[in-house]
């Protein structure tokens, strides 16, 4: 018979702690899908669709296209969409990790475009703002019969764009290229709105800087300049992709849509000019603020020097009388003390009048 271990040997031992490895909970793709629709002859087909059912419906009909919108999916969730639509792995990686510059790339029969979105952050005053421009991203995969949009950021919703297109079936008949144009136009229109709001802030900041006796920190102007630089990073690189789309970079963009991209490019040029002017104006305001601060410091130093000169008169007199000399006639004189005090006051008043007339005080 096998001897069992004594319980006494286990007495006093701490129980062994078993650490359980957390098991990640899979999140269904539907949690990332904002909307998925099938459009045939410019009209949305009724019903709810998965991406697989939607693309099968379109390819069985041989007409129409699918538009699926995703919001910040992870690598695992977007993989099924990538396999269904044949998206290139490099473009999928860019769409998941975001933080991309605006660009346009072509992978076989698929077009991949990145657009930076911006939102103006309302503040009580431009001289107390911590953030003026909030940025996000929209990635667009464009194929012959599908559009896949991947959004990053909470302000870059495309619900308005989808609704406008659905209210205009003639434009949706053109196909996925019309969706790409509408998204680009929507993003650039937001640029215009943001630049208008920033222009108002800069005008207000300019008025504060050049107002008499106003105190403006150069740090706050530099913050605004940094926010304008963030807007510049979103706007400037987008010019080349829009120009390529307008010039027939890919057959996925028909001729009738290219002229619309030229219009978007014209609006982007207007935004670019505004952003460049903002940058130059803010540089000027920084220089003006630094000059104003320097002038204020010089004024403060003059005031300090003037008061030091005035205070030095009684200090000198007190120092002379503090040396305890005996042969000082006024020490024995009845009116010596009031006369010395009066002389000190008169000297201080004369100095004060001189400095006041020279605007040192």
Automatic annotation (TrEMBL):
Instruction: Give me the segments passing through the membrane.
Output: 304-323, 335-355
What Gene Ontology terms describe what this protein does at the molecular function level?
cobalt ion binding; cobalt ion transmembrane transporter activity; magnesium ion binding; magnesium ion transmembrane transporter activity
Matches recorded under Gene3D superfamilies: CorA soluble domain-like, Magnesium transport protein CorA, transmembrane region
Major location, coarse class? membrane
Localization, UniProt: Cell membrane; Membrane
Recite the UniProt keywords alphabetically. Cell membrane, Ion transport, Magnesium, Membrane, Transmembrane, Transmembrane helix, Transport
Catalytic activity from the UniProt record? Mg(2+)(in) = Mg(2+)(out)
InterPro entries per the UniProt record, alphabetical = CorA_cytoplasmic_dom, CorA_TM1_TM2, Mg/Co-transport_prot_CorA, MgTranspt_CorA/ZnTranspt_ZntB
The yes or no answer to whether the keyword Iron is present is no
> How does the protein's chain sit in the membrane according to the entry?
Multi-pass membrane protein
Q: Which GO terms describe its cellular component?
A: plasma membrane
Q: Which Pfam families match?
A: CorA (PF01544)
The UniProt family comment states: Belongs to the CorA metal ion transporter (MIT) (TC 1.A.35) family.
PANTHER family registered for this protein in UniProt: CORA FAMILY METAL ION TRANSPORTER (EUROFUNG)
Q: What does this protein do?
A: Mediates influx of magnesium ions. Alternates between open and closed states. Activated by low cytoplasmic Mg(2+) levels. Inactive when cytoplasmic Mg(2+) levels are high.
> What is the name of the protein in this document?
Magnesium transport protein CorA
């Amino acid at each position: 018979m096998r001897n069992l271990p004594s319980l006494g040997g286990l007495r006093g031992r701490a129980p062994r702690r078993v650490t359980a490895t957390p098991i990640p909970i899979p999140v269904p793709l539907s949690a990332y899908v904002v909307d998925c629709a099938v459009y045939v002859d410019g009209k949305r087909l009724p019903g709810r669709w998965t991406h697989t059912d939607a693309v099968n419906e379109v390819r069985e009909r041989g007409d129409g296209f699918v538009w699926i919108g995703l919001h910040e999916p992870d690598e695992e969730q977007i993989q099924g969409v990538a396999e269904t639509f044949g998206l290139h792995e490099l473009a999928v990686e860019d769409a998941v990790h975001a933080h991309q510059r605006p660009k346009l790339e072509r992978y076989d029969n698929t077009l991949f475009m990145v657009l930076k979105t911006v939102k103006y952050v309302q503040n009580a005053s431009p001289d107390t703002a911590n953030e003026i421009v909030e940025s996000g991203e929209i990635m667009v995969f464009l194929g012959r019969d599908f559009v896949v949009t991947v959004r990053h950021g909470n302000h870059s919703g495309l619900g308005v764009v989808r609704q406008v297109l659905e209210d205009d079936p003639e434009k949706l008949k053109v196909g996925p290229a019309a969706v790409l144009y509408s998204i680009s136009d929507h993003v650039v229109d937001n640029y215009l709105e943001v630049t208008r709001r920033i222009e108002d802030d800069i005008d207000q900041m300019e008025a504060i800087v050049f107002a008499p006796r106003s105190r403006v920190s150069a740090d706050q102007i530099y913050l605004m300049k940094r926010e304008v630089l963030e807007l510049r990073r979103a706007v400037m690189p987008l010019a080349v992709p829009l120009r390529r789309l307008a010039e027939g970079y890919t057959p996925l963009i028909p001729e009738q849509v290219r002229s619309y991209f030229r219009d978007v490019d014209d609006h982007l040029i207007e935004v670019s000019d505004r952003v460049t002017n903002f940058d130059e104006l803010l540089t000027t305001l920084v220089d003006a603020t630094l000059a104003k601060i320097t002038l204020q410091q010089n004024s403060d130093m003059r005031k300090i020097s003037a008061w030091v000169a005035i205070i030095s008169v009684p200090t000198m007199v007190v120092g002379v009388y503090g040396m305890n000399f005996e042969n000082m006639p006024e020490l024995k004189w009845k009116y010596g003390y009031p006369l010395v005090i009066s002389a000190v006051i008169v000297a201080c008043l004369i100095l004060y009048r001189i400095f006041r007339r020279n605007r040192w005080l």
